């Protein structure tokens, strides 16, 4: 739906930022948990341990990226919502005063 207006719903953005932050917090320790799990598997499997070690070494950087991206996502959403709210506040005087310059019209 388009209303031909520019802007954003800052309250919705803040809410989405809070959801992203909760998701990022849930990811904290993901890399360590994966590493511990893979270490346990490799010590329990005997002769196929090297496969788990290679799998761990290949996937660990990707898990670290997921964790970092979750944190960056939360930070970016919240920063965007904050910047939008700040811009709206700074522009509010300019836009509220623009109607004062219009002549009064009686019908």
Query: Separation of termini?
Result: 34 Å
Give Rg in angstroms: 25 Å
Considering DSSP H and I runs of 4 or more, what fraction of the residues is helical? over 70%
Please indicate the percent range of residues in DSSP E strands (runs of 2 or more): under 5%
User: Mean pLDDT, rounded to whole units?
Assistant: 76
Low-confidence blocks of residues:
none
The SS-based structural class is: mainly alpha
Describe the protein:
With 107 residues, this protein is mostly helical. Helix content is 77%, strand content 0%. It is built from three helices and no strands. Helix 1 runs antiparallel to helix 3 and helix 2 packs antiparallel against helix 3. The radius of gyration is 25 Å and the shape is rod-shaped. The two termini are 34 Å apart.
Features:
107 residues, 0% strand, rod-shaped, mainly alpha
SSE order and pairing:
Elements: H1 10-27, H2 30-44, H3 49-97
Helix pairs in contact: 1-3, 2-3
In short:
The chain is an all-alpha fold. It has helices at 10-27, 30-44, 49-97.
């Amino acid at each position: 739906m388009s209303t031909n207006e520019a802007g954003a719903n800052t309250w919705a953005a803040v809410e989405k930022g809070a959801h992203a932050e909760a998701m990022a917090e849930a990811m904290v320790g993901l890399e360590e948990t994966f590493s511990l799990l893979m270490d346990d598997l490799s010590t329990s499997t005997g002769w196929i341990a090297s496969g788990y070690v290679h799998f761990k070494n290949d996937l660990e950087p990707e898990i670290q990226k997921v964790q970092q991206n979750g944190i960056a996502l939360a930070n970016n959403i919240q920063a965007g919502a904050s910047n939008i709210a700040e811009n709206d506040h700074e522009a509010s005087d300019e836009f509220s005063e623009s109607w004062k310059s219009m002549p009064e019209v009686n019908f």
